[in-house]
Amino acid sequence: MNIDIDGKLKEWIEAKGNQLTVKTLEVKACCVPGVQELVAVPGKPKSLNHYQEYVIDNLSIYVQNTISCKEKLTLSLSGFSFLKSISAKLQ
Known about the structure:
Layout: E1 2-5, H1 7-15, E2 19-27, E3 35-42, E4 51-56, E5 59-64, E6 72-78, E7 85-90
Parallel strand pairs: 1-6, 2-5
Antiparallel strand pairs: 2-3, 4-5, 6-7
């Protein structure tokens, strides 16, 4: 998998413990088909059984097995102060 990480995100994750988890979140509704979104959160997943670990510049990135490894994963940081969030996109 090709993973592109924003420079600001690298610094932020290093301050949070050098670990990041990327997983899918599925939202279902009664009348609308389910929507899957990528979610990236600092830290290590509770169980590593469903994740593949990638080490990039001393950072451990855990990517859920259901995410296609043939695509490019782009991770970036947005927001400021305590309102920062991580954006994860497949291209």
